[in-house]
DNA sequence: GACTAAGCGAGACGGTACGTCAAGTCTTGTC
DNA sequence: GACAAGACTTGACGTACCGTCTCGCTTAGTC
């Protein structure tokens, strides 16, 4: 009994050009305005090929997120020993994105995708390095005594990202204020 | 000295039934799936009557938000003197909403609307009482010495709400963890 | 026994500007594309003022026809004694209209109006001078022996006009052929 | 036995049911009142399928005309040798249609369609057998000497049809008078 | 001279249809 | 059997007009 089947297997080229087109169109036009037909057209691919492998628009975005196709940015945070300054480094990456109107729209769009599609929601904060990078750095801060034991590091990570997102939704954003928030939350204890 | 024009005036009944239908359909089906045609049908109104007075779906939602048609909840926060417990009261109202799956979807939907429409974004945190209620209470905390001078109260409000939102987008939410966050941010100084 | 009513009477200025706008828009855009709202706008008049006095778009056109607001042409035919040449004079007026593409469209449009509205149909051939002018001239031809007794003059008039109309509907028209038709029908007996 | 299914090639079933619905609705309700949405609904077809293959309402009518879906009547004319009587046979078919109020409205409606759409105009007289049947019979009349050489047969055909149409637009029609016209034009030379 | 009541410009209203776009499903023919 | 292509039904988009119905203003008799 062989699980080998006749015929061609999944086309890597198609997958590549679909995700490529998805990422490009998403960045250019946002999540609303992103259409399966548009992706198929841009990717030179039949619609069915998309529907065959992804259940929804959101799943495409989630894959782009996982493969880092939406941001050029590296969200990894160094450990220089200075907790606050390291976290500000991470924050700076986020703020650099939303400083640019397109970047701001991109982040909002991504949040919009996450509200509609759980798969995107799952990837959202991860793809911005909250768990792997920010929370990880905070954990080190707990270990080396810069933060009290029992600090809810994941929550703190979500809170910092969340403050930025909430302000982005209100189309108001003030980098210096964001940094004050970080210093307030982490500092002066 | 009247600058009003002759002719028929805006129908209050139409406005009412449109916002009513909007709020109902939004709560039942979410922002995606909310259509102008559906609203018009449910409100017994011509589409043009909607387009005449609101520029977009989002503007309808923003109006619903302003008039408190989406949440039954009162986000006003008492001042008992106990800062942390008062903030937890506010947080509890939010958590009560998203404890229920429908409520969680409602909040996410609202965030989705905010990503697409600036008018909703403008109202989002306000309608959840962040400025008027939470940040106000924090300000009192600064005044009475429970918080250090220079505390960025608006930022802190956004951060607390933002943490909840980020977790809601990831479809993970832990009320007790959220409360720990509040106690961590505000407390033990 | 007063059947008088108080208040203002029908505004001659409104009537004038409505028919004016109707004729202009009809000539510029044709019967399809002619809208009550467009007329009201162009005439600087409320829609209700139109609906108050005319039951339909067609009735407006019929009034324009009656008052000769659609054609600059005079369809009266001289009696020079030469029947065929007099009829060709009349025909020449019609052909001069449809020689111009706009005039051709105007005639077609008028026919279109007549198909939808009996009031226009009633005026159509009359407004082109078929009864008063062409058929009248043919009658004289019967009297003076240029046409046989019993000639169905109205029918002949309709036939000549009808041939032009049918060809206009097919977007083919040949003035010389039309004149041959007249000479064939009337001549050489 | 065809188990034909829809597919990437044009669906014959859709075409058929669209033209079917068009012809039915046109006969029932006339050209004004004929809507693409109504046709789509009646045909059980998406609007886009209509727009994909026909540029306008008129093009649908033109196709119905070409395929003889609007008249049950056969406009072919026999050649019995008696020219006038043969032409009266043809005329009788037309008169039979407009004797009935619905038929009269149908003809008027068709004329209305022709005024708005060149494609219908192209087909109008052809579909009533003017060229293929009436003018052809007249040509034979020229050949066999019943009509003088040089008779403008096409024009005469248009004139006879045109007379009927003009009278139909005026909502006056007298079969006997129409026959007198034919006898006058063709006869007694 | 005040009091009607209709005509008027304006335009809101519930509708229908427009022509377009995209959704997701289904076929065809090619590789 | 995956693929590019694209026809199909469905349904929403935002716009244009329909014919009806107020509004508030102006004006022309009647009291």
Question: What would your notes on this structure say?
Answer:
- 4 copies of one chain form a homotetramer.
- By secondary structure, the first copy, chain A, is mainly α.
- Chain A folds into 2 domains: 8-53, Arc Repressor Mutant, subunit A; 83-185, no CATH class.
- Chain A is 68% helix and 0% strand.
- The first copy, chain A, contains 10 helices and no strands.
- Chain A has helices at residues 12-29, 36-43, 47-53, 57-66, 83-99, 101-116, 118-127, 130-143, 153-169, 175-186.
- In chain A, helix 1 crosses helix 2, helix 5 runs antiparallel to helix 8 and helix 6 crosses helix 7 (118-127).
- The model of chain A has no long low-confidence stretch (mean pLDDT 92).
- Chains in contact: A-B, C-D.
- Chain C binds a DNA duplex (31 and 31 nucleotides) through residues 2, 4-11, 14, 35-38, 40, 44-49, 51-52.
Question: What are the salient characteristics of this protein?
Answer:
homotetramer; 189 residues; mainly alpha; Arc Repressor Mutant, subunit A; 2 domains; 10 helices; elongated; DNA-binding
Bin the helical content of chain A: 55-70%
Backbone CA Rg of chain A: 19 Å
Instruction: Give unreliable regions of chain A as ranges.
Output: none
The chain-level mean pLDDT of chain A equals 92
% residues in beta strands of chain A: under 5%
**Largest interface summary:** A-B, 43 and 43 residues
SSE class of chain A: mainly alpha
Largest sheet of chain A: none
Quaternary state of the chains: homotetramer
* Through-space gap between termini of chain A: 66 Å
